[in-house]
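Lab meeting notes turned into a lecture example. A postdoc, R.K., suggested we walk through two folding results consecutively so the class can see how the record format repeats. The first protein's sequence and structure tokens come next.
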Amino acid sequence: MMTPLFILEPLERPLTALLEWLHSSVGLTWAWAIVATTIIVRTILLPLTVRQIHSMQRLQAHAPEMKAIQQRYKNDRAKQQEELMKFYRENKINPASSCLPILFQIPVFLALFFVLKDFEKEVFPKYPGSELSWLWNLVPDITQPLSSDPLSAVVLLILYATSQTASTFFMSATMDKMQRYLLLALPLIFLFFVINFPAGLMIYWVTTNLWTTGQGLVTRTLRPKPGPPDKRTSRTPPGGDGKSRPEPEAQAVPPAPPRRVKKKKKRARR
């Protein structure tokens, strides 16, 4: 199976073999085989996902300190980046680790696109009588573009927009507000492009979005809630942490000598 992106061919063969095994040995339909493939891929990427979650938690915990650095060097971008990188090293933060799962999913997504593109010609004839439909025939053919069937397009686009918005909401908690709003709006923009994707590819996309949403819910549940900030009072010593500090031992001060007061002499009366 040759594709324009021949570099993806090593991924296409295992994906095709996995789909055929899930269909022929496990007994899943082709659509549910895609769902199972998605779960298997996300399970393999789980170690990277754990690193992503830990990195996002560290970023969120140190967000005020990083914002202070940005404000301090807002007029010197080079110095700002230098101080931020130093801060990342000291606190063992790797901002790039939050993108690793996505970077590994993109080749799988593209490889599955080409697998489904030639699926009806190269794979489906090996299994006569098998079904290409999904969800009680609401999606009649997973190899065809969404635009070929209005009903399946509506069902999958609603699932896609909802799942994509939910996954973005949970996984962008540490981003800037403007960036977060942009990511939340992207699913609506992509609707005009994904309409030409094969329905099976949309099943993969929706499944991975639902996985990400569940992952975000579990992360929020297990993450310990930060305690309330320490209250400062008039007795709180300066330092900002609200903790009492040991006072230095008082040193013995020698008593001052008594002050001598000069008496004024009375002038004699004339």
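The second example is placed directly after the first for contrast:
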Amino acid sequence: MQMTQKDVDLYRYERKFLVDQLDEHQTKAVIRRHPSLFYEPYPPRFVNNFYLDTPAMDNYYDNIGGSGDRRKVRIRWYGELFGQISKPILEFKIKQGMVGMKRHYAFPDFQVEKGYCDEYLMERIKDSSLPPEVKIILQDQEVVLLNRYFRHYYATRDERYRVTLDTHLSYYRIGRLNNTFAHRQTDHRNIVVELKYEIEHDLSAFKVSNFFPFRVTKSSKYVQGIERVYF
């Protein structure tokens, strides 16, 4: 997958914080009291993700190994977890050092229900209008994890800084055949907060992040999910 100048221009910072000493209401209060005057530009909603990886779990091991160039592949949709999934999005989340960017592709509708198998999703990919180079990459991928969380959105009025707050995290182990979605791990204790901004706003970002009394973390939801349901 070739990198273009447009891709480079889309790189941004994502600072992750793990909140384990405050509850949801207290965490929201911290964000609302922030001197940057964050407001909620969108209503909260459930976010669902199928994460794909190679059979050798290359993406997972690159992430925990601290590789300079890392990638996550996921299919994202909103709202209901099961049933007919409409307008899902295929995302390639690419990290280089401390910054990252996303490539988005419209993905064909599909079903998530008991008995789900990888062959079904691969057929949907094969018959889709995804670019040929994307289909080639996905040939070496399989769904290994399903995760779900409830997300609140915040932004400064100038939209330079955005914050997401994720609660009610759950993770499902996904195999190649006949998934029942019974192997689930939930995390209702921890809250994940992310601060997101473009590279040109990094110099003043410390003024925003230093106000948060949260613990910085490098661990992604994908890594957390894999370690919860596989190890």
